[in-house]
Amino acid sequence: MELKGKIIQALPEQSGTSQRGPWRKQEYVIEIPGDYPKQVCFMAWGDKIDEFGIQEGQELTVHFDLQSREYNGRWYTDVKAWRIESGNEQQEGPPPVDPGQQFEPRSEAPPDFDDDVPF
Predict the structure, then answer these.
(1) What's the domain range around 22?
(2) In this structure, is residue 116 part of a structural domain?
(3) pLDDT, tens digit, for every residue of 75-97?
(4) Taking the model in full, what pTM does it have?
(5) Is residue 31 part of a domain?
(6) Has residue 12 been placed in a domain?
(7) Phi, psi of 48 (to 5 degrees)
(8) 107's torsion region: left (phi>0), alpha (psi -120 to 50) or beta?
């Protein structure tokens, strides 16, 4: 899946340690143009933060996967970027998914979290 728009906010990087070791993530808000512009918050994990180098004001195409998980009877959904395109420049990543194909989640999983925080 992909979104095209302008980065309107880069939130502070977050980091911590889980059973698998240290982790870090950063969230960004992209505004999708249209008659009724929409804002979507997505995240980048680990080395992708530095690889993407996302800055506020950039016009980007964000390729992402959706992942949901249940915690105490509530569901939480993450929008995880795996490739960023800026103009004609493309970052490396898997090829785009044909809309007619069955959705297959990426094998790269975020670290497990063992604390009581659901996100």
Answers:
(1) 2-90
(2) no
(3) 999 999 999 998 545 444 555 55
(4) 0.70
(5) yes
(6) yes
(7) -60, -30
(8) alpha
Note the pLDDT of residue 115: 55
Asked if residue 17 lies in contact with residue 66, where contact means CB atoms within 8 angstroms, the answer is no
- Domain-embedded: residue 102: no
User: What length does the chain have?
Assistant: 119
- The average pLDDT across 89-110 equals 52
What is the predicted pLDDT for the residue at 91?
Answer: 44
More confident site: 107 or 65: 65
Report how far residue 20's alpha carbon sits from residue 110's, in angstroms, rounded to the nearest whole number. Answer: 10
Report the domain count for the chain: 1
Residue 83: φ, ψ to 5°? -155, 145
The distance of Cα 105 from the centroid of its chain, to the nearest Å, equals 13
The CA-to-CA distance between both ends of the chain, in Å, stands at: 22
Q: Is 51 helix (H, G, I), strand (E, B) or coil?
A: helix
CA dihedral 80, 44, 42, 18 (to 10 degrees): 80
